[in-house]
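Here's what a typical entry looks like (Pyrroloquinoline-quinone binding quinoprotein):
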Amino acid sequence: MLRARERPERRRRGDLAVAAFLVLLVVAVAVGYGLSSPAANTESVPATSPGVQPAPAPDVPPAALVEAWRAPSAAAPVPVVSGPGVVTAAGGTVVGRDATTGAERWTYTRDRELCTVTEGFGQVLALYPSADGTWCSELTALASDLGTRGPASNLDVRPGARLAASGSTAVASSADYLEAMRSDLVTTLQYGAVVAPAQPDRQPRPGCTYTSLAVAAGRLGVIEDCPADAADRLTVLRPDGTGDADTPKVEFSVPLATRGTQLLAVSADRAAVLLPGPPELQILDREGDQVGLIGLDVPESEVAPPADRVGATAGDSDRVYWWSGSRTVALDRSGLAPVWTLRDTLGAGVEYGGSWLLPTRAGLAVVDPVRGAVLRTIPVDRGGFAGPVVLAADGQMLYEQRGDELVALRPA
């Protein structure tokens, strides 16, 4: 028996109007997001082929160096060397360059000026401000070789932010807030003035400011200036990503003897804090107990914490090198005890050709890293520039960050 065909559902005129409105709403939201999203006003021009690694470093530092190229890089406080190339950053543009010639290989440009740039996880981390300039919030990872975009994240740090990375952790900092991330830029730790906490009262000391920090060996140390404390406080955190990000894992937090201190370094088992008047290095163990107090040959005027919270340090497998402002102090990496001090330097230096190179007014001092003895000096003409010099190396190439400019040197 044949069934009568069912009549189709009738659509009322009002239903059609609602459907049309919903379609227009979806289109409007998509257009609005497209205009306001980070990708809307971004120009990304990746490299078309892999970069070329520079020639290997010589067995010993050369007798002479010549300038290979230079480029503006005001947004990068330190040389950004990663993979077979080097990166410069100024205005709103990050440029991937050939390490040897400085030729542009890729660019990434936004319609706003960069907050800061650094290297982390073998990538370039570029931090841009929010559209209204209130935050340094839009972080993008770029492949160091080709410049292609990787993970992105929205942070809650204020202008004046600084990025620091070590091993499996990168940290974005501002005066009252720290945010740690892993390599995919997922947040593993929020500390301080969390903007929209999932639950209240998870931060141990709200209202503090952060004057100095160091990250290494899966530990994040920070000097806190808290209104309720009579002196500075050292807090060591574990940014390992276990648990909720806005519930900090505090390894220890102890008051220090005075204010105006600076955290120089952390290791797997120690933390080294510079105390003022007269300058002394206080070494603390994993429980926050003092295990050493050693005088340092550093002017008292150079004890104050850095304006951007991150000290001028560099390192090799055995030592951490800290620059005070006029001299370089080498610390044993495991115990953080001072090993030697050299005066009249312009930076923390870099490992190159089996020696440690330290910038001086005359050029680059070739230093025995074990004894701190100056073996000789490679002349470098900086054209009257006498400010701090931050060094990096890639194969035979040396890079000097001189203020807002990056200068590349090669063996003559």
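The domain at 40-160 is CATH 2.40.10.480 (Thrombin, subunit H).

More examples are in the samples folder.
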